[in-house]
Design goal:
Order of helices and strands: EHHEHHHHHHHEEH
Number of helices: 10
Largest sheet: 4 strands, mixed
Shape: globular
Number of strands: 4
Radius of gyration: 16 Å
CATH architecture: 3-Layer(aba) Sandwich
Structural class: alpha+beta
CATH class: Alpha Beta
Distance between the termini: 13 Å
CATH superfamily: Glutaredoxin
Helix content: 40-55%
Strand content: 5-15%
Strand order of the largest sheet: 2-1-3-4
């Protein structure tokens, strides 16, 4: 029986980045991973949740916690000085990339640009350059992220996460169970192995 895991993520979430870099541990269980780009801002708004930046003590803790996870996983990460990144166009780009069979490349490049290179991905030109590096034609990217089809695709993915209990990212789904946060990956992997 094929095991399938859905991974809901947003590029603006450092924990989504760290979880993405740790997906190999999920894949090692034999699971197929469905990358599902969502808009965490929409999830926050719909669930009355607040981003870490809106809670000063939480944001201050974030840097320490990110460093712990970075060390634990052996993954490079930097606090992006342009944080928060408003990820609506980036996440629409992920929907477009999935349509073009370029989602893995696009996801890798976008996460790397935000959380390793710490680029200003609020700058449309820089964002477009990263998309082009992933293999998407620049004109196709500019037109695609503004198309109703792509906008609707992101809404559908975000609604999927909400309908299945999400209140933030990263969120995983397996066997009708939700696993929220990078720390829940341990329980996801345990369940996949059982």
């Amino acid at each position: 029986m094929t095991k399938s895991v859905t991974f809901c993520f947003d590029f603006g979430s450092p924990y989504s980045y760290l979880a993405y870099k740790n997906l190999k541990s999920v894949a090692e269980t034999g699971a197929i991973i469905d990358l599902k780009p969502v808009l965490v801002g929409g999830i926050f708004k719909s669930t009355d949740n607040r981003p870490p930046l809106a809670i000063p003590k939480k944001f201050a803790y974030l840097a320490k916690d990110m460093a712990r996870w970075s060390n634990s996983l052996g993954v490079k990460i930097k606090i992006n000085p342009y944080f928060p990144i408003i990820t609506v166009p980036h996440m629409r780009g992920a929907i477009l990339a999935k349509k073009l069979n370029l989602l893995e490349s696009y996801t890798e490049k976008m996460f790397d640009a935000i959380w390793v290179k710490a680029l200003n991905l609020n700058d449309q030109m820089i964002m477009s350059e990263v998309a082009i590096e992933s293999g998407i034609d620049g004109n196709d990217f500019a037109e695609g992220i503004m198309s109703e089809e792509i906008k609707e695709g992101l809404k559908i993915n975000t609604q999927y996460a909400l309908d299945n209990g999400a209140f933030g990212v990263p969120t995983f789904y397996f066997n009708n169970e939700m696993y929220w946060g990078i720390d829940s990956m341990k329980f996801l992997i345990d369940d996949l192995n059982n």
